[in-house]
Inverse folding.
């Protein structure tokens, strides 16, 4: 198991270098000079722009700047300093990430609980009235764009009923609407996934066996069926969570929450290269960790996968041995 | 032979007839051997009421996108200062906006932009992703691992952020928006195509094609891709919903289609300012985004079931 995790962590290194390179390249081909923007736009003198370019080392060749960036990252753990505010990107990310994380975590937990429960009910009562209702609402929930449902909820709860604030993040009441919006769209997708996955499992022979030997229905569903149906559901939750951590840009914009999505979007608009590079790196890293977490969850749910992970190293050795011609030992 | 009538021989004769019949049938239909399969999937598809409903809504939206001028009572940029912010009524069934433009007409014209961008984005993404996926699957080895690592890199950046970055680099117009959406979604297509080709590339018909000297390109395009179509079509259908959504989302935050063009997301974003008093500016465009995605999802679900080999029995 530890070997598997280690292998996955090592796999991260080339991906992160690639992400860094990609972010650098995107910034490289972007039109507009950040130095001119910093110097004050149209009114800036060429001397001033040249001076800022020299300070920021913008005239160095691409490869030198990239090397410099990687060196700073590895030796000092420095992911960059914002052109605009002159603050380290890491500090700003550390300040903003908790907001995004809080929103993503609350929504994901609620959505998982509600989504899995409704999905199970829907599956065991297939084609009943309640199944039809749940299926219909989950389909609507999947199709509803989050920016539209946010506006509708604001219209209803903030403007008409005046129950909840429409923007901000200071008290728990501010979190209700954004989390409700993200939570419902995520829950809808989880319901659909759980339902179809459960339906597939319920038809299997071992479920019939469990029932035939007189197992209580509750245990059949929660132990025999659910455990086998959970893998695609967990994949779905992990995927959504990963997207939420970095991509809740629109929700953060509508509800004016200073999260990381908003930070990056603003930086892209302002051509604040280091901010874009640094925060995209952080996002790619967390995304990869979420994926790793999902894969480890698979192992926790399914003993077959667990043993697969355990045997990964051994199997490779065996394969190598088998591939070698007779009379030669594997090195 | 007719005199001998032991059961064994009778059985043999019947089997013989059956075999001849089957053989004859096979010979008759050699030219059109792939049609019945598609026809059968099609029949299975239209037998599902939800899939048919999705298809009808979708076709209606496509007609709207192609010929908005036939239905729309007014042009999309007809400003009438005598009737600003009219609530929905008999003349303007979805009301009018801050410049006195008919919301219903704008929504109709909007279908062209939202669905058009979505459609072309899926086509581009399929082209890029399909090529990469087939190369990765067909050649395997180093080509496969390089392409897969590249896809990992692109996938580890949230797609909406990638699209935002690309539109802000290229500038905001319809073509760039389409490019941005397709670049941010092509890895999914690449993965699907790769998986689909991997599952069939060891089969005998591929070997046969290679044996008669078909080139790699020919094998990929004439033999492998047509046989791997089912999952690709399903992904493209569902992906169309995602592309329409991304188009609306990017326009909503001001990086997509610019006013006065009536894209649905652009309309939502413009109506947001007036949400306190004039709800119809927000409700109707959003409803159409939802309708488009809804129809595509229903259709895609039906398509998946119709093309699923496990349900063919």
């Amino acid at each position: 198991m530890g070997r598997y995790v280690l292998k996955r962590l090592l796999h991260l290194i080339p991906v992160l270098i690639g992400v860094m390179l990609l972010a650098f390249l995107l910034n490289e081909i972007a039109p507009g000079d950040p130095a001119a923007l910093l110097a004050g736009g149209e009114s800036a003198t060429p001397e001033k722009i040249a001076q800022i370019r020299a300070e920021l080392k913008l005239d160095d060749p691409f490869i030198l700047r990239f090397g410099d960036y990687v060196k700073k990252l590895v030796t000092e753990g420095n992911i960059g300093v914002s052109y605009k505010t002159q603050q380290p990107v890491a500090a700003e990310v550390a300040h903003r990430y908790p907001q995004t994380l809080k929103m993503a975590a609350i929504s994901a937990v609620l959505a998982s609980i509600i989504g899995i429960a409704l999905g199970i009910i829907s599956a065991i009562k297939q084609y009943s009235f309640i199944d039809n209702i749940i299926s219909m609402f989950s389909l609507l929930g999947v199709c509803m764009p989050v920016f539209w449902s946010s506006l509708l909820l604001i219209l209803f709860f903030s403007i008409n009923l005046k129950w909840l604030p429409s923007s901000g993040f200071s008290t728990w009441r501010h979190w209700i609407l954004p989390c409700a919006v993200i939570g419902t769209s995520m829950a809808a997708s989880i319901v659909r996934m759980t339902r179809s996955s459960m339906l597939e499992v319920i038809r299997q022979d071992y479920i019939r066996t469990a029932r035939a030997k007189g197992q209580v229905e509750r245990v059949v569903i929660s132990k025999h069926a659910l455990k086998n149906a959970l893998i695609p559901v967990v994949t779905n939750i992990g995927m959504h969570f990963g997207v939420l951590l970095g991509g809740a840009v629109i929700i953060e914009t509508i509800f004016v929450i200073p999260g990381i999505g908003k930070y990056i979007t603003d930086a892209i608009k302002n051509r604040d290269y280091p901010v874009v590079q640094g925060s995209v790196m952080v996002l790619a890293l967390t995304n990869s960790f979420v994926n790793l977490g999902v894969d480890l969850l698979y192992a926790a749910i399914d003993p077959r996968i667990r043993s697969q992970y355990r045997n990964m190293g051994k199997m490779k050795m065996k394969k190598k041995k088998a591939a070698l011609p007779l009379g030669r030992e594997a090195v | 032979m007719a005199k001998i009538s032991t059961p064994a021989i009778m059985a043999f004769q019947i089997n013989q007839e059956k075999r001849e019949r089957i053989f004859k049938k096979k010979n008759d239909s050699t030219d059109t051997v792939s049609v019945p399969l598609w026809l059968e999937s099609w029949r299975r598809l239209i037998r599902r009421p939800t899939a048919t409903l999705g298809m009808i809504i979708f076709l209606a939206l496509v007609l709207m996108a192609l010929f908005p001028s036939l239905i729309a009572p007014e042009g999309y940029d007809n400003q009438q200062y005598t009737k600003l912010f009219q609530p929905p009524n008999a003349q303007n069934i979805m009301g009018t906006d801050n410049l006195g433009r008919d919301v219903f007409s704008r929504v109709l014209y909007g279908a062209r932009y939202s669905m058009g961008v979505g459609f072309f984005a899926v086509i581009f993404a399929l082209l890029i992703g399909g090529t990469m996926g087939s190369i990765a699957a067909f050649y395997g080895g180093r080509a496969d691992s390089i392409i897969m690592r590249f896809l990992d890199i692109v996938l580890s950046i949230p797609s909406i952020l990638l699209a935002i970055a690309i539109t802000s680099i290229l500038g905001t117009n319809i073509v760039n928006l389409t490019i941005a959406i397709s670049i941010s979604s092509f890895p999914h297509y690449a993965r699907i195509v790769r998986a689909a080709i991997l599952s069939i590339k060891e089969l005998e018909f591929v070997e046969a094609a290679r044996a008669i000297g078909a080139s790699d390109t020919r094998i990929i395009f004439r033999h492998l891709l047509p046989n791997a179509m089912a999952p690709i079509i399903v992904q493209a259908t569902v992906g169309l919903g995602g592309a329409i959504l991304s188009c609306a989302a990017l326009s909503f935050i001001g990086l997509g289609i610019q006013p006065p063009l009536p894209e649905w997301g652009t309309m939502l974003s413009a109506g947001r300012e007036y949400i306190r008093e004039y709800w119809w500016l927000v409700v109707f465009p959003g409803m159409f985004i939802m309708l488009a995605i809804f129809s595509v999802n229903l259709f895609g679900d039906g398509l998946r079931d119709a093309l699923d080999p496990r349900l063919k029995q």
The radius of gyration of chain A is 25 Å. Chain A touches chain B through 42 residues (CB under 8 Å).
